[in-house]
Amino acid sequence: MSPNGPVCGLLTDLYELTMAAGYYAAGKSEEKAAFELSVRHLPPNRNYIIAAGLAQAVEYLTSVQFTEEDIAYLRSLPQFAHAPGGFYDRLRRFRFTGDLLAVPEGTPVFSGEPVLTLRAPLIEAQIAETYLLSMISFQSLVATKAARIVQTARGRAVVEFGTRRAHSPMAGVVAARAAYIGGCIGTSNTLAGKLYGIPVYGTAAHSWVQAFPSEEAAFRQLQELLKASTVYIVDTYDTLEGARRAAALGPPLWGVRLDSGDLLALSRQVRAILDEAGLKDAKIMASGDLNEYRIQDLVRRGAPIDAFGVGTELVTSADSPRLGAIYKLVELESEGIRRYTAKFSEDKATYPGTKQVYRFKDHDLIACSWEGPPGKGAKSLLRLVLLDGKPVQPLPAASEVREYAARQLAALPAPCRRLDSAWAYRIEYSSALTDLAKKVRSRVGEAAS
């Protein structure tokens, strides 16, 4: 990810580039291709996926390029020893010039539904595969996990705390964005706050307390610095004694944070300490290996916790850390002749042709893109984002996407939002799409015989 400059074209799998060289050598690189990105199967314990990462996909498509150093590196690889010289000239002028359609970020999607559709010269659409799959998959996983966590918090604030546990610092940045889209009120990641306008939050680490000769001295110094934003971490030594020392200092403060131990029992005891000191407005935040199941249990049992900080489980989507996203060629046009393509291998079959997804109140319909709206109440999900490589209109800010996602989730059937049981949202396929798949299968079978 490069938020302040071009994206390096080498940020892709090698075979995308060897195929690109092969397309050029075969005279196919400028054929008009259509690829679709979708999720083959929903992960375990997921009844939906929140689409996220579109903003970074657009950033990539509008800025990806190859420098002379990139091209020199490719020339040095044995896989490109026989690539035509013209291929490198094509990379020098490489820019995405095609069209992008996508479901709006924050939209709940289901297996088999296109999330993105690219129409572009074959070489451009092929090279984009790796980046798009990675970015959309990761942010969608995190946004979905965040939505589940926020749901179980039942109105209590959830802050994303996970950059230090993410798979890289920059993964932490986009994870913060995705978690915000999924419903978190903010993040501890300062760069994400700057880049995406996400509210940032922070308390203090145990090292802060350990750095002073006494817990009281550490608390006093923190209060001098942060005033009404002060959040004391009270479990460095003895949690209840720490809470008493914090309470004795009085206002100004936001509250205290519990990071270990029996959060149910401790939150009740700490709440009593704060209330007895006249600090009824002081809040309690809990953190420490939290996920939707632990939060759900704490809330159901009446823990007086006002906010949750969630890190590792959120930014890694720990219980379902992978998404079976696919990026498949569905159409190819050469010299005015359009050919529809699909896979028919067992368990990995795809439907040919570009598609539109129509959402009704209780089900979705996947249809050929050239079909008209299927009836009253249908809402088309895929919308034009880039035309000839240029944005059609500005993308919404992360805060707008967050609000949109909340509305879309609330509109889903209630069983779809359950945590503990699988519930299959109804997906239908139009007769025209089904017929097209049969025709393409027949054609492929005849060509193979």
Can you offer a commentary on this structure?
With 449 residues, this protein is of the alpha/beta class. The chain contains 16 helices and 21 strands. The mean pLDDT is 96. Strands 15-14-2-7-5-19-20 form a 7-stranded antiparallel sheet. Strands 9-8-13-12-11-10 form a 6-stranded parallel sheet.
**Radius of gyration, taken over Cα atoms and rounded to an integer in Å:** 26 Å
Q: Give average pLDDT, whole number.
A: 96
Poorly predicted parts: none
**Main beta sheet strand tally, sense and closure:** 7 strands, antiparallel
Number of strands: 21
Could you give a short description of this structure?
The protein is of the alpha/beta class and 449 residues long.
Can you give keywords for this protein?
449 residues, single chain, elongated, alpha/beta, 6-stranded parallel beta sheet
Question: Can you lay out the helices and strands and say which pair or pack?
Answer:
Elements: E1 7-8, H1 14-25, E2 32-39, E3 49-50, H2 54-61, E4 64-65, H3 68-76, H4 85-92, E5 99-102, E6 108-109, E7 114-121, H5 122-127, H6 129-153, E8 157-160, H7 169-181, E9 186-187, H8 190-196, H9 206-210, H10 215-226, E10 231-233, H11 239-249, E11 255-258, H12 263-276, E12 283-286, H13 292-300, E13 307-310, H14 312-315, E14 325-334, E15 337-340, E16 355-359, E17 363-368, E18 379-380, E19 383-387, E20 390-391, H15 398-411, E21 426-429, H16 431-448
